[in-house]
């Protein structure tokens, strides 16, 4: 993948047409916000643009996703936003995996799958990059674009909490508010609004909380039975993996989630400089320094044992 | 109370000496951050300054409060920060209630108890006002002052989530980061760090969750027994009152907390424009539009019934 500058990225976008913007599977606020902001911006500049995600877009994002219904033309230029690797594409989006023209991303671990790419591993979110890109293109913002970008930034930073937040992130948030982003509505919806099912699920999950390594390692479980009993949907589990590392003294927090096929998906979160992506890499997964994931296709207790063993080794313990 | 400008406030602070800065009872990040930032700034300008709170300052704030130990001189100029009314002073701080020279606050409901006052009801926090004041005084910032102010702003805005956050709030946060505030450490400590006791307490509190008025009113309880069983301290209950309004559809969230004397303290949080301070005013309490409190000195079930009755009336229901 040829690395290009922000200015060159802007030039490319102004020079083509008929864009299709891909999002990663299990879409989050950043991939959705980035793709829709870019789509809306390109349309505003007189281009044709659509978005595509292999999985369903959660309806909670409707306040901006409803503003850009797909038009269904034949795409000529394929872009991906917030996609670190083509293994993260699913469904119809996966069909484009070998033909991506431009990749815009903030994962330092980006595998370089596109023809050209702008990757800034220091940006708080892909949406923050989209803001700088639209500024470079001298876009005149409207509320929907500002809402989409604000959503990407605030969801990917835990509402301006994570170490990825820079002074520029806060200044960008200030500008987006002035450009019409309804920050109060967005922050409330994304962070202070839990369904009754989610509350019930949290209670059940907390009942599985286990500590290891003198309280430095904590693990929780989300089972199919809990999902059924609580009535929780997939999107109700957002944020659950952050629960163990929120407990005082915990350095590694592991969430094991039962998938439909019986496989276990592990989410690892870390504090104080421990590399979560290195832990998940042991099982073929990856992610960021403080948040990563992997799957272990083994029987539950064996999968759990193997994950705990790797975590304990990193903490300098024996099993 | 004579209302003065920010410039006049700066002039007064530059013109006096031997300052004592009062905080409100049950001190939170904003009153503590504001008082200590001002104290540290005045000392940096060559003045003598101390802080005083009637209640204990939670040790979690030690990263900046430890930097300004009291010097114990005879104070000549009394300031209050983030104190809306002298009824919010306790212990030794209460002794100064009729002799406060300068009040700096962001509560629109401030009762005007001081000789002169600078009150900006639109500021996100008292700490945000302190930042503008120190800028006006052309202070050269250091890490401790930046940490103290950042703490006040982020704690009083739920980490940049509430409607009180303006573009200026985000720009102020950006500047404080550049002036040395360790925003990642502070946000983690204030929002992502729960004691094991707190986690246990949350589980017990969720077991008491009750809905009324078709899910638009939710109430939770915190009893002395739960506090004992979980081992939670007073500071472990911070944020508990926000739990009910985080549930989808809830417009009024009530938390009733048993006090040592058997009295019940009610915290009311509201969504979508319902005035929490009006609800609490019915029982002699007060606060902000979205967050208020009051005490009802009656037997538990009667106190609860009266509170729910007022809330239901506001929601347009019968009991």
Describe the structure.
The structure is a homodimer. The radius of gyration of chain A is 20 Å and the shape is globular. In chain A, about 35% of the residues lie in helices and about 15% in strands. Chain A has a six-stranded parallel sheet with strand order 1-6-5-4-2-3, with helices on one face. In chain A, α6 packs antiparallel against α7. The first copy, chain A, contains twelve helices and twelve strands. Chain A is an alpha/beta fold. The longest helix of chain A is centred in the first third of the chain and has 16 residues. At the A-B interface, α7, α8 and α9 of A face α7, α8 and α9 of B.
Give structural attributes:
12 helices, 319 residues, 37% helix, 6-stranded mixed beta sheet, homodimer, 17% strand, alpha/beta, 6-stranded parallel beta sheet
Shape summary of chain A: globular
Q: Stretches of chain A where pLDDT falls below 50 for ≥5 residues?
A: none
Strand order of the largest sheet of chain A: 1-6-5-4-2-3
Helix/strand class of chain A: alpha/beta
Query: Helices and strands of chain A, in N-to-C order?
Result: EHEHEHEHEEHHHHHEEHEEHEEH
Task: Give the % helix of chain A.
Answer: 25-40%
Helical segment tally of chain A?
12
Largest sheet of chain A: 6 strands, parallel
Number of strands of chain A: 12
**Could you tell me the radius of gyration of chain A in angstroms?**
20 Å
Assembly state (oligomeric): homodimer
Approximately how much beta-strand content do the residues of chain A carry?
A: 15-25%
- The overall average pLDDT of chain A, rounded, is 94
The most extensive interface between chains reads:
A-B, 41 and 41 residues
Separation of the first and last Cα atoms of chain A: 42 Å
């Amino acid at each position: 993948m040829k690395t290009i500058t922000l200015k060159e990225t802007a030039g490319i976008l102004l020079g083509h047409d008929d864009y299709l913007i891909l999002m990663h599977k299990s879409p989050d606020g950043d991939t959705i916000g980035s793709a829709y902001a870019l789509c809306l911006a390109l349309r505003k500049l007189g281009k044709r643009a659509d978005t595509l995600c292999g999985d369903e877009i959660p309806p909670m994002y409707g306040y901006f996703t409803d503003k850009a219904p797909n038009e269904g033309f034949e795409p000529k230029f394929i872009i991906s936003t917030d996609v670190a690797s083509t293994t993260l594409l699913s469904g119809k989006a996966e069909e484009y995996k070998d033909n991506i023209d431009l990749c815009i991303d903030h994962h330092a671990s980006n595998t370089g799958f596109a023809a050209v790419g702008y990757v800034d591993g220091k940006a708080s979110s892909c949406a923050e990059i989209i803001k700088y890109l639209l500024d470079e293109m001298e876009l005149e913002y409207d509320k929907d674009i500002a809402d989409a970008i604000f959503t990407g930034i605030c969801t990917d930073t835990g509402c301006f909490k994570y170490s990825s937040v820079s002074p520029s992130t806060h200044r960008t948030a200030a500008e987006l508010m002035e450009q019409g982003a309804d920050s109060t509505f967005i922050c409330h919806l994304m962070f202070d609004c839990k369904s009754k099912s989610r509350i019930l699920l949290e209670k059940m999950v907390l009942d599985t909380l286990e500590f290891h390594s003198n309280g430095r390692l904590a693990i929780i479980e989300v089972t199919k039975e809990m999902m059924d009993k609580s009535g929780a949907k997939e999107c109700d589990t957002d944020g659950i993996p952050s629960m163990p590392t929120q407990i005082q003294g915990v350095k590694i927090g592991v969430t094991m989630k039962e998938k439909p096929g019986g496989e276990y998906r592990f989410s690892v979160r870390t504090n104080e400089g421990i590399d979560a992506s290195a832990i998940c890499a042991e099982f073929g997964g990856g992610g960021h320094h403080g948040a990563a994931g992997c799957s272990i296709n083994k029987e539950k207790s064996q999968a759990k044992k193997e994950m705990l063993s790797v975590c304990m080794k990193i903490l300098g313990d024996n099993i």
